[in-house]
Amino acid sequence: MDVTVDGTDNYVIGVDYGTLSGRAVVVRVRDGKELGSGVFDYPHAVVTDALPADTAGVPADGAARLPGEWALQVPNDYRDVLRNAVPAAIADAGIDPAAVVGIATDFTACTMVPVKADGTPLNELPGFANRPHAYVKLWRHHAAQPQADRINELAAERGEAWLPRYGGLISSEWEFAKGLQLLEEDPDAYAAMDHWVEAADWIVWQICGQYVRNACTAGYKGIYQDGRYPSADFLAALNPGFKDFVSTKLEHTIGRLGDAAGYLTAEAAAWTGLPEGIAVAVGNVDAHVTAPAAKAVEPGQLVAIMGTSTCHVMNGSELREVPGMCGVVDGGIVDGLWGYEAGQSGVGDIFGWFTKNGVPPEYHRAAAAAGLGIHEYLTDLAARQAIGEHGLIALDWHSGNRSVLVDHELSGVVVGQTLATKPEDTYRALLEATAFGTRTIVDAFRDSGVPVKEFIVAGGLLKNKLLMQIYADITGLQLSTIGSTQGPALGSAIHAAVAAGKYADIREAAAAMGSEPGDVYTPIAENVAAYEELFQEYRTLHDYFGRGANDMMHRLKAIQRNATKALVAAGASA
Questions:
Q1: Which helix (H) or strand (E) holds 233?
Q2: What is this structure's pTM?
Q3: φ and ψ at residue 523, rounded to 5 degrees
Q4: Distance between alpha carbon 28 and the CA centroid of its chain, in Å?
Q5: In which region does residue 106 sit, left (phi positive, over 0), alpha (psi from -120 to 50) or beta (all else)?
Q6: Which CA distances in Å does 155 have to 158, 177, 238, 333, 571?
Q7: Residues 482, 290: Cα–Cα separation, whole Å
Q8: Could you tell me which residues come within 8 angstroms of residue 423 by beta carbon, excluding any fewer than 6 positions away?
Q9: Three-class SS state of 470
Q10: What is the tens place of the pLDDT at every residue in 173-217?
Q11: CA-CA-CA-CA torsion sign (379, 296, 445, 289)
Q12: What is the mean pLDDT of residues 425-440?
């Protein structure tokens, strides 16, 4: 393919929308070299307690208080990434913007935006700024678990054919559960909404002026299988008002990954400093778009994108039913193969939570004195321990369980703490717990006839060498890290090159532009044996709390939810 213009190098932009920020990367089309980047932190971050005063239009102490398990975002923060991170990346690369031929974006999923017919988010309309359901529901918004439970129960009762494609359970993070929650808790906002849009598609709409649903989120998060969504009859059985959800709120043209959704508008060109009319690729998910960046486009190459959460994606040549998987979609990663997905809702978030809430001030002071971040300091202390020395087993469910239990009512546990337990003990136990969670996922794939041949890690956590070795030892797999520090953004750039017509397809572009491996970690035989004993203890705890032997976590969530509702009601009547 021609990857230059008049013999001059040309470039593409990949924009990765994460949980807390958006990052843009400038990539050379002919070889995937990353030349510059820019990052923009969302001003409103994740909204969990009360709507921000500057958007709700009321004083902070009068803003609508949110119940537990809510996680919202402000859509204009996403536009600001284009206004700030993209120009910064171009400046950092030192290239002529006229040489840019395409742009592509990826997003955390499932992140949903309620909009009007022209794409305007509901929270930007008069009268809606102080209504929580008018805002973006971030992927980690788990307040729709009751709706997800009803979807799962009804689908199992009716024997819906699509249910096994999702491991037998639909997540509260996904489109239908969140949409049903919106209908039942704010029917006026639901009625005012014209489209229920993945943020991955909304930002593309903002850039090119065309609304195109991407095949990835439609399949994995929107229950779109074999050319159709769940039936109107099924939706009506959930709630009569939900009967037309697909036809009136969700259904839209579905774009193939790597195709152009449209072309950069004059307005978006002014935001970004890019040429009007360049190709804008169909949207995608941060995890799935990373597989081509890691050159992992063949069956059996499991890619774990490890950050605040972890998403595991892999291609397979055959369709299999894997318990608790997030989904299997024909062409969900690359055309011609079945794309499998699983994941863990909390990984880096758990480590961050612990350092903020479970580490005493003297540790922070000692870390600063040593010139280290608190994570580096705790990792150094934990690395000195023998396996099992801390005497702990933890469950990595502080943000619920995405796979294989698909239950966000579950919560974290640490067993074995004594008065002698130190912060580095608990920190290491949490690192190990997330690796045990990944091992559980790997075993589920293998046991279902989807072999895992390679284990490749991308994302911010690959810098922690102790963590990477723990994962290799616990899974028993040789682990390689992606050479790029910007895996999702590079993956998006690869899709932009295909959308711009510079490569025939994703496989060809990945071969030319994908990143070579970084570090390689080989399982250590004695560590594998030591961790096998601990993994059996983890599995016992996992099944005890997660498979119905003890329903305590669900009861505690119900108590918490009722207490929060009472508090909110008391505040509203005060």
A1: helix 232-238
A2: 0.90
A3: -55, 140
A4: 26
A5: beta
A6: 5, 13, 10, 26, 38
A7: 9
A8: 354, 358, 359, 360, 363, 378
A9: helix
A10: 999 999 999 999 999 999 999 999 999 999 999 999 999 999 999
A11: positive
A12: 98
